[in-house]
Amino acid sequence: MKTSALTTGLRQRLTLIALSTLAVLGTTSVGSTATAAPESAVKASRGEDGPVIVAHRGASGYRPEHTLAAYELAARMGADYIEPDLVSTADGVLVARHEPEIGGTTDVAERPEFADRKTTKLVDGKPVTGWFAEDFTLAELKTLRAVERIPDLRPSNTIYDGRFEIPTLQEVIDLAKRLSKELGREIGIYAETKHPTYFQQQGRPLEPALVRTLERNGLNRPNAKVYVQSFEVANLKQLSTQLRVPLVQLVDASGAPYDFVASGDPRTYDDLVTPEGLREIATYAQGFGPQKDRVIPRDANGYLTEPTTVVDDAHAAGLTVHAWTFRAENEFLPADFRSSDDPAAWGDIFAEYEAFLATGIDGVFADHPDIAVEAARAQQLARR
Ligand code: G3P
Ligand code: CA
User: Fold this and answer.
1) What DSSP designation does 329 have?
2) Do residues 319 and 286 touch, judged by C-beta distance below 8 A?
């Protein structure tokens, strides 16, 4: 599936999108407020058959991830959901970070008062050295500031280093409520429990706080615009007895759910994506979140091959399919769509979206939600 380099027209379109990022803060969006199932509201705002757009860690292509600024920009760009990954503080408060170790996304390493918190822990069986969210109270975490995770690939984002706090889940919900009112369409929450077994081992289980927070905000109901996702199985099964919102089983490109590893269950993610595995997922979850190589694998040189049957198999099992993660930089694109050897330069992500949306996936996790919105519109226009 090889294609030529970027066309002039596409380059112009990418430039316009980059420029529009600066203008988008002043825009408002139109659409319906959700009154039925979560995706009904989304489809009403973009058309009946449009894919769901999940802002991966916020608009993380434009702002340091998991900050209120990243989430707000994503909503203003047209994302249907903002995605907080969740970890726990020492005092049991859920905050938005991608992993327990916070040295990669905050300025904690530059804070002498926290130098003695640096330690090494086993996270899902692997040693990790740094500073860990569960070793800080919320008050302590609030003194830190977010920094860009991948400055070499996203140097523009580093101008925001040091400006934004680590948000709590409650603050993310409050932001979504405020923006829903302002934008006239409901902004959903797509929350992920990060390393559930690890946090149980640390004595800071994520699930009770998540259930409590959703309950407190009136969001534990079938028509709330909320998804809850996990790479592990046991905690989703447990949550399926407590939550009334749709659950999504994440499936990585390789490896196994860590709760399987910890309990001696020999099954891997490969076993979960068989038709039988997908039917098993459907007994406790409503969605399936595959790493995108599970949908269209790459060959040894990084080029896309033919789509697998996993989307059809998941649909046959009754599961919605939301694939991850779509990013504009060459570093992350299939070789087909890279614009140059510069890993930070943007390639033909529209072509990537076209290929993946054609497989029938129901949604995408996107670092650049504005591009995902445009790609979804293009797909719908092409169908008419
Ligand atoms: O949750 C979907 C996707 O975000 C999973 O990947 O590692 O970015 O949380 P990760
Ligand atoms: Ca995630």
Assistant:
1) B
2) yes
| Distance between CA atoms of residues 81 and 75, nearest Å | 7
In angstroms, rounded to a whole number, what is the distance separating the alpha carbons of residues 233 and 314?
A: 16
Q: Note the pLDDT tens digit of each residue in 324-340.
A: 999 999 999 999 999 99
Instruction: Report the phi/psi class of residue 123: left, alpha or beta, with left for phi > 0 and alpha for psi in -120 to 50.
Output: beta
CA 268 – CA 40 distance, rounded (Å) = 33
At position 199, the amino acid (one-letter code) is F
- pTM for this model (two decimals): 0.89
Element (H, E) at 192: strand 188-193
Q: Which of 5-9, 79-83, 158-162 has the lowest mean pLDDT?
A: 5-9
At 186, list the tokens. 């409901």
Index of the ligand 1 atom closest to the CA of residue 194: 9
Contact 114, 108 (CB under 8 A): yes
User: Which alpha helices (DSSP H) does 333-368 contain, by range?
Assistant: 349-357
Residue whose Cα lies nearest atom 5 of ligand 1: it is 324
CA nearest neighbour of 191 among 235, 161, 149: 235
- What percent of the chain lies above the pLDDT cut of 70? 87
* Nearest Cα residue to 79 out of 186, 228, 217: 186
Residue-range domain boundaries for the chain: 8-86+169-383
Ligand 2 (single-atom ion) residues, CB below 5 Å: 85, 192
What mean pLDDT is reported for the chain? 90
Pocket lining for ligand 1, CB < 6 angstroms:
56, 85, 98, 192, 229, 250, 289, 324-325, 365
Q: Which mutation among 250, 252, 294 tests ligand 1's pocket best, with the greatest number of atoms within 8 A of CB?
A: 250
The strand pair at 126-130 and 119-123 is best described as antiparallel
238 contacts: CB under 8 Å, gap ≥ 6: 207
* Superfamily designation of domain 8-86+169-383: Phosphatidylinositol (PI) phosphodiesterase (3.20.20.190)
Host H or E run for residue 239: helix 234-239
**3-class secondary-structure state, position 364:** strand
Nearest residue (by CA) to ligand 1, atom 10, is: 98
Cβ-based burial of 319 (10 A; exposed 0-12, middle 13-18, buried ≥19): buried
CA-to-CA distance for 317 and 346, rounded, in angstroms? Answer: 36
